[in-house]
Amino acid sequence: MPAGAQSYGLGFYSHEVVQDKRTTLDLSVNNVRPKDNLDVYFDLSFMPNHVIYFGYILRLIGDDKQNIDLVYDNQANTKHFKIIIGERLSKICFNIDDKLLFEHWNKLRIVIDYKNDKITVFSGKEAYSESGLQLKPCANYKLLFGANAYRQFQTTDLPPLKLRDVNVSQNGTLLSNWPLNEWEGNVANETVNQNNGTITNPLWIKSRHRNWQMEKEFTVPGDASVTFDAATERVLVISQDSLFAYTVNKTPQIISTAYNSGRQLLVPGDQALYSNDKLYYLYIDQLAVGTYDFGAKRWNKGFTNLATNNGHFNKFFSKADSSIYTIGGYGQLIYKDSVKRYNVITNTWQKVTVKGDTFTPRYLAGLGTNTVGDTAYVIGGYGSASGQQIVNPRNLYDMMRFSVKDKSFKKLFTIDVKNEDFVFSNSLVINEKERSYYGLIFPQHKFNSNLQLIRGSLDKAKYQLVGDTIPFLFHDIHSFSDLYYLPHSSKFLAVTLFRENDRTRIKIYSLLSPPEPLDDRVVEISHAGYLLWIAISGIVLLAIAGYFVFVKRKKQLVIPGPQYQPKTVLVPPVTDQQLEPEVLLFDDDHTKSHCKNSIFLFGDLQLFTPEGNEITKYFTPLLKELFLVILLYSVKLDRGVSSEKLNEILWFDKSEKSARNNRSVNIAKLKSLLDKMGHCQLSKDTGYWKIEIGYSHILVDYHNYLNIVSNKTKLNKQKIIHLTHITQRGNFLSNIEYEWLDTFKSEVSNEIIDCYLSFAGSVPIADDPEFLIKLANDIFYFDPVNEEAMILKCKALAHIGKHSLAKNTFESFNKEYKAIYGEAFERDFHSILE
């Protein structure tokens, strides 16, 4: 993972795509001195993991008459680089060592000596020449790299190459320079005379070091777990009935292998690990490990547990003692700080007694190890000092080092975050040589979140944002993300999992190494806790240009709405008829890249136009509050709000005239924004300001919520499932605080809890205990000390034989109850089960 390597140039699509999609670089040099030496030089590299390496690298054409070609032929003979003059194969042929050719830039120089009728090719320190070629002096030249369709010189054969810094000179005078350092577009900018070239089907290397590229997206039934085999560069996805292997190198492909051992029960929140040339599945609650036999296609163990008490824990394999270690995790409202060790030779578990600095209980941390696995680095996460979720949980930003040798933790430093809080994906990529780490961060308080790669130091509290963002839907154990590094392909892989409707969607993204900075700032924090921004003023303009490219790319990639999108763009309101059990409210089409025609109030406020563009960012704080006041009174009361009420809420400190002027200006702005939505207009036809919405065209989650909770006598399982889909985005307007909004928020929370409890009371525990457990957890999300939810969950867990989990639930409830009310809960465990 070289941090300082130059990551620019032009990549060429080759035989892996059809002829029309292959890359051409067309450059010209005109009015040169015909009889003087012509010197052409450039940097060349080959892209690894392709099947065919054959074809034209450069066709140098003089006055449309004579061609001098540099070709690559990987056929029988040992000299692959060759020079062709006209229709004759010259004697010039040479090789470049594969390691240099595929992993480094190589300088090639072609000197055409007309006076001596001679061509010399310089490759590294070697020179290859031939004389007596009958060269014809020319004044105008075409430099055609890769495929081309130019007159009689056209060709579609080319190797998968990378090119940069193309130069042409005569007698030491630089005539043309094409750096090929663009981010996008079909123009190769020339720096000497603005003699720009053209490109078809470009693959800009710099953008591949900045922009994550979707490698693969697929769905598996039920729960799934993911891990990575670095030696073969395979992503391994464990599903209930098959093992999916996505091979990144060579031709990317997915191979699915059904288990001969039958269906494997997977537990939400459990994880897999590939190490020691073996594939393991960690049933952490049962202190058990399943091992997969690739030859026999069998798992050696299967289990029956349906819930986990240790979600989002960290794990690693240590060669030093042939053991798997797990650290931290979360379950049953408790953050964990325990370290467990599983010896793969003796097949025994033990809880590790640790020493050194205090490791705060947490989950959603990032962990990486050195090569031998005797030292682990754990950074960040979310937890609390007591381990209890109810007692001051917070984001953590300390970097802890765990030593396998003496089982000790040492705190190295704490990074300081001035903006939005974040947690880490499960794995860090450690670069021991450079004393650095790479990790993926994301704000865990959002459902529609984004992953961001950072590069940090193992020795200092500094980090830098690198690469653009990846869309990520986060909903606790329904979601998982991880980061891997491919040593042979020199690229990072990010993998996201999201489970919904009893299916898990896997997305795999790649980014070339080294990753380009998101900007040119490095965040560095001393141990005293101050923040130092190091900005390089000479590249401010490049940062600005990079930002606009980043925004354009982000618009193409970010999934701003939840993946349970409406079946069609026309979204009907939720009615009792639509909520019959056989009717699907949401489809399973996860191929849409944008949520369209939607207004979301649960979680973050988001508005999406019919084109899928999010317009929330155009709302100023005042416009946002004005919009919400009118919208909530319109949707809930179907009436709207008076001008006097708006003045009272928004402009109470202004005179009547000033308030009226402010209101008029902002109403006009709001109308303009709502016009972008379509089927959504601001009116005052009834004397009240009201937002008229065509619910058959626009999804409004608050409107659907009201339709569900308005009649509790008609609740059914499908309605409850739909309600959880709405609320899993987050609490109602979770990041917005207005005094007038408190009543709405309180009412929403109470109504949701009442709906859940009302439905739970109508379902015998024996009929659907697993669903009732989930329902109780959903209630705890709004009210962590809800007595009825605790009793419901304990009874359901006891009914399916999970008495220890039921007891843990009761004890966790007791601790939180006492922390809030200052006294113990009056009933004991056995009484609530009666």
From TrEMBL:
Q: Where are the transmembrane segments?
A: 530-550
Keyword entries, A-Z: Membrane, Transmembrane, Transmembrane helix
Which PANTHER family would you find in this protein's record? TRANSCRIPTIONAL REGULATOR REDD, TRANSCRIPTIONAL REGULATOR REDD-RELATED
The name of this protein is Galactose oxidase
Tell me where on the tree of life, at the top rank, the source sits.
Answer: Bacteria
